[in-house]
């Protein structure tokens, strides 16, 4: 599925295309991979629960979440400190919720939330690019998986393994709800050449990383593993901060993918 470039995004695309392909030296890239968990732990130690806003928008964008009931099991990959699952519990119920994150510090903070209850959910540390997840959850046992602003933080070489694991964990006809950074998003053209690891993959000052996807790339990734796309498209949103006089247009890729 291709996207016509909107006029207001053409200047951003020119800025991104001006990034010379200047990957960091191999040893720097490998060092970032080795220190990925440490950098996310430091991020949460520094920011605690104050960095990310609650994701109250998810039930509006993904109506499948409103169909959660006592028969449905949900897995959130990359749960952070609970900005998705705790607001979700206020508007709908599930039979059980699994929540995993790469960062031990994030899981520690999530479990300190007074809303956390073992009879409703299980939060645990997991590297979703390995078989870790299957020590906590059986294959073919989950109805809905959310993968929201998570895949972009993972090395591109491991994208397929992540999606394969999600396919294994889902029941037949189960779905993945996906949103992540889109190609030519405002955040991409703010990076400097020196932040580039590889094409469309960047490192932030704190050592965490971010990849920017095309809609066709995500579609090919999920369909290649055995999913059928119910939705796969760019979404454009406008972020306005009146106090700081900031008006920013954002570009994301959003999709719903069903296990077939």
Commentary on this structure:
With 260 residues, this protein is of the alpha/beta class. It has a single domain (23-259), classed as Vaccinia Virus protein VP39 (Rossmann fold, 3-Layer(aba) Sandwich), CATH 3.40.50. The protein contains nine helices and ten strands. The chain has helices at residues 7-17, 26-34, 36-47, 58-61, 85-89, 104-111, 159-169, 186-190, 215-225; strands at residues 73-77, 96-101, 121-125, 142-148, 170-181, 196-198, 201-203, 209-211, 227-241, 246-259. The strands form two sheets. A seven-stranded mixed beta sheet has the order 3-2-1-4-5-10-9, sandwiched between helices. A three-stranded antiparallel beta sheet has the order 6-7-8, with no helix packed on it. Helix 5 links the parallel strand 1 (73-77) and strand 2. The chain is globular, with a radius of gyration of 18 Å. The two termini are 20 Å apart. 37% of the residues are buried. The model is unreliable at 1-5 and 7-14 (pLDDT under 50). Residues 75-176 form the Methyltransferase type domain. InterPro entries: Methyltransf_12 (IPR013217), METTL2/6/8-like (IPR026113), SAM-dependent_MTases_sf (IPR029063). It is an enzyme of class 2 (transferase). Its EC number is 2.1.1.-.
Secondary-structure map with pairings?
Blueprint (H helix, E strand, L loop, with lengths): L6 H11 L8 H9 L1 H12 L10 H4 L11 E5 L7 H5 L6 E6 L2 H8 L9 E5 L16 E7 L10 H11 E12 L4 H5 L5 E3 L2 E3 L5 E3 L3 H11 L1 E15 L4 E14 L1
Parallel strand pairs: 1-2, 1-4, 2-3, 4-5
Antiparallel strand pairs: 5-10, 6-7, 7-8, 9-10
Helix pairs in contact: 3-6
């Amino acid at each position: 599925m291709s996207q016509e470039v909107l006029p207001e995004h053409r200047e951003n695309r020119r800025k991104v295309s001006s990034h010379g392909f200047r990957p960091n030296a191999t040893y720097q890239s490998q060092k970032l991979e080795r220190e990925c968990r440490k950098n996310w732990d430091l991020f949460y130690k520094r920011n605690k629960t104050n960095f990310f806003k609650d994701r109250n928008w998810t039930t509006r964008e993904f109506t499948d979440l409103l169909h959660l009931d006592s028969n449905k099991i949900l897995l959130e990959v990359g749960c952070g400190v609970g900005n998705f699952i705790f607001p979700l519990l206020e508007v709908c119920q599930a039979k059980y919720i699994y929540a995993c994150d790469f960062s031990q510090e994030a899981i520690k903070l999530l479990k300190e939330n007074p809303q956390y209850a073992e009879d409703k959910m299980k939060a645990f540390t997991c590297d979703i690019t390995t078989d870790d997840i299957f020590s906590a959850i059986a294959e073919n046992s989950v109805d809905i998986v959310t993968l929201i602003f998570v895949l972009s933080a993972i090395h591109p070489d491991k994208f397929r393994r992540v999606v394969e694991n999600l396919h294994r964990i889902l029941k037949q006809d189960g779905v993945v709800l996906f949103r992540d950074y889109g190609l030519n998003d405002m955040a991409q053209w703010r990076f400097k050449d020196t932040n580039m690891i590889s094409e469309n993959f960047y490192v932030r000052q704190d050592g965490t990383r971010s990849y920017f996807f095309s809609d066709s790339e995500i579609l090919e990734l999920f369909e290649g593993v055995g999913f059928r796309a119910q939705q796969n498209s760019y979404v454009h949103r406008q972020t306005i901060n009146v106090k700081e006089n900031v008006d920013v247009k954002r570009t994301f890729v959003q999709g719903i993918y069903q296990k077939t």
